[in-house]
Amino acid sequence: MVKYPSQSANSDPGALHAGREYPRHIYHATIAPVTVSSAQEEAALGPEWSRQYIHRCYPSVRYHWSGKTVTVQNADEDTTLEGGWAGTPAAFEAYEGPRRAPMEQPDPCKWLDEWSVPGLSSHDRRKIKAQLLRADGAFQRSPDADPESAALVCMRQAFEGIAQVLLDAELLTRELLRAVQELVWNSAISGGWWRRASETRETIFPERLGRYWVWREDSREARELFRAETREWEARLLEAPERKTPAAPASLSTPPAEDLPNKSIPPSTVTSPAPEQASPAPAEGDCALASEAHRIEALAAYTKSWDCSEAALARRARVDPADLSKWKKVSLPAASQKNARIERVLKNNEDPTPLLQHRRKY
Fold first, then answer.
1. DSSP string for 71-104
2. C-alpha span between 341 and 300 (Å, rounded)
3. Cα separations (Å) of 100 from 134, 144, 148, 184, 193?
4. Which residues lie below 8 Å from residue 336, measured CB to CB, with a gap of 6+?
5. Cβ(215)–Cβ(205) under 8 Å?
6. Three-state SS for 77?
7. For 69-112, how does the pLDDT look when each residue is reduced to its tens digit (9 = 90+)?
8. Radius of gyration over alpha carbons of the chain, in Å?
9. Are the CB atoms for 215 and 197 separated by under 8 Å?
10. Please, what's the largest Cα pairwise distance for the chain?
11. Per-residue pLDDT tens digits for 171-227
12. Residue 263 and residue 90: Cα distance in Å, rounded?
């Protein structure tokens, strides 16, 4: 770190010695200060340099959920960081520590009345509410030592209970199992079980899950939550007697239209099917990808379908995340190969490329 000589209130902050014009420090908004020895050297620097101190945004330290830090040298490096980073460690404090929930009034049943399932009776809805309350009670009784693990256990309990209610009502389908997952995530966050979440998007919460933005990248257990349970219930569905009229998929507790980036999102992007059933994104050159709003919708459908981040799509398309942001804003040239690769991945619904994780050393 460069150390600057102390100056009195009335002295020139660029002068190195009182009463001497040179040598002196000259400042720049993005480049480290330099010392000049003459007026000729000062003039040669150009008009963007100043004798007055200019605050520099970079280099700057960024902090991560995992405890890692990184120094970014410029805005481009800052932009290419994936989610989970903040400019201060204080950004994480409200979501750490024993049992501290950011929700003012925890309520695991907050979104249940808005959860739409065709054919679901009020009696069965009360049964689902009972399952959520039982899971909430189990969480309140769990030890404080590891609230994240306790939350995952209770979320599995709620998932199993809700799936059983729907199976008994002859409403359960593979598509509805995915909707149950989202309901449980919404309930866990609104109930204060899962604390690393916010109702608004922040850099430390890059992933959308139902009505919330969450962080779960550093927890493999959280990212693979419900995978085994879903397979078990799919097997039970195969073994169950055939029904005359299978239920239609539930709405996925999506926020009201005024909370979404684009109020004209078609219903097909609201209910995202399982990965193996996902519909391809619009074809390259299709008018459905002509605007920024439509591109945001296509990315949201892809990331929800594969349960991944936008960065995973960028890795699949072999482009920098910054280029994906430019594509989203329709600022990449239409004839660009990067543009073509991104839209090919969306069109063919190609599987995302996960980030290779390196085990931390303690």
1. EE-SHHHHHHS-SSEESSGGGGGGG-STT--S-S
2. 17
3. 20, 10, 11, 20, 9
4. none
5. yes
6. helix
7. 888 777 777 777 777 777 777 777 777 755 544 456 789 999 99
8. 26
9. yes
10. 95
11. 999 999 999 999 999 999 999 898 888 888 888 888 888 889 888 866 677 778 899
12. 34
Amino acid at 352: P
| Burial class for 240, CB neighbours closer than 10 Å (0-12, 13-18, 19+) | exposed
Please state, in angstroms and rounded to a whole number, the distance separating the CA atoms of residues 143 and 145: 6
Length of the chain counted residue by residue: 362
First-last CA distance in the chain = 28
Classify each residue of 314-328 as buried b or exposed e, where b means 16 or more C-beta atoms within 10 Å of its C-beta.
bbbbebbbebbebbb
Q: How many CB atoms lie within 10 A of CB 130?
A: 13
Residue 264 identity:
S
Q: Which two tokens stand for residue 362?
A: 């303690």
Contact indicator for 63, 79 with CB cutoff of 8 Å: no
Q: Give me the sign of the Cα torsion angle 326, 331, 337, 343.
A: positive
Helix (H, G, I), strand (E, B) or coil at 71: strand
| Residues 274 and 182 sit within 8 Å (Cβ to Cβ) | no
Nearest alpha carbon to residue 129 among 173, 165, 87: 165
Are residues 2 and 27 in contact, defined by beta-carbon separation less than 8 angstroms? no
Angle at 39 between CA 33 and CA 44, to 5 degrees: 65
Say how far apart CA 184 and CA 148 lie, in whole Å.
Answer: 15
Cα–Cα distance measured from residue 147 to residue 349, given in angstroms and rounded to the nearest whole number: 36
